[in-house]
């Protein structure tokens, strides 16, 4: 029966070195693998960040383009309404037509108020025109409502910057009807704005239904 020969110092050293090299290689492989995973993760994160930044840049570009289009469209609408505003300020230039218009506005306001006594506010330069139609308005109102109203022209005149028309009040000023041309233009703006947009710019491709 043979017995194992004890290792000499050199053999022991070589064996220990071999074991140390193996452990080193194992640890090195682990470190390399971990660093490789870290690099892959960093690379993937950088790619995602780049994609996000690209989408943000594209979104900003689209939003700026949309904003520019909206601003240009709003400018066109402003020009349309400014032209309309200039035109209503010319309505009173035709005295005969303006007198007929005042008659209709006062009568309409009177029907809305249905008060026995009503106060009329108008521009100071329209006082004569208003006075000239009050008798006719009272006759038409009496024919319909079976009682004759009393009209008083207020000395609190509409500003000269007004396009004309009247503001009428009843029940001691607690009830008011604004029938100025400026107010009626504002109503037209609100009611017809969607139609005006379509007429000027067409239907929006982003809308799936229409008013």
From TrEMBL:
<protein>
    <submittedName>
        <fullName>ATP synthase subunit</fullName>
    </submittedName>
</protein>
<dbReference type="GO" id="GO:0046961">
    <property type="term" value="F:proton-transporting ATPase activity, rotational mechanism"/>
</dbReference>
<dbReference type="InterPro" id="IPR002842">
    <property type="entry name" value="ATPase_V1_Esu"/>
</dbReference>
<comment type="similarity">
    <text>Belongs to the V-ATPase E subunit family.</text>
</comment>
<dbReference type="GO" id="GO:0033178">
    <property type="term" value="C:proton-transporting two-sector ATPase complex, catalytic domain"/>
</dbReference>
<keyword id="KW-0406">Ion transport</keyword>
<dbReference type="Pfam" id="PF01991">
    <property type="entry name" value="vATP-synt_E"/>
</dbReference>
<keyword id="KW-0813">Transport</keyword>
<dbReference type="InterPro" id="IPR038495">
    <property type="entry name" value="ATPase_E_C"/>
</dbReference>
